[in-house]
Amino acid sequence: MDAEYYILCPQRPENAPGLITHLISVDICRKRQAEGFHKCPNCVRSDIWKMEHERGTRPAPVK
After folding, report:
1. CB 23 within 8 A of CB 3
2. Per-residue pLDDT, 53
3. 7-18 CB burial, b ≥16 within 10 A, e <16
4. Residue 7 per-residue DSSP state
5. CA 6 to chain centre
6. Distances in whole angstroms, Cα of residue 12 to Cα of each of 15, 32, 42
7. What's the CA gap between 53 and 26, in Å, rounded?
8. FRET partner for 46 with CA separation of 20 to 30 A, picked from 1, 9, 15, 38?
9. For residue 25, which phi and psi values (nearest 5 degrees)?
10. Residue ranges of the domains in the chain?
């Protein structure tokens, strides 16, 4: 497995793992972000997460 191609989904900002995580490809990650996958707002790889944290706010929890 290529360590740079497969990533943990979602990747939490802390070192603590998420409740349910799995390895996905970078391509799948991009596709999920584009489709609004429900875990993306809480993932450090997500553009949504990055935009929220650049402003100094945390995203609302996904319900």
Report:
1. no
2. 83
3. bbbbbeeeeeee
4. E
5. 13
6. 7, 16, 7
7. 21
8. 1
9. -80, 160
10. 6-54
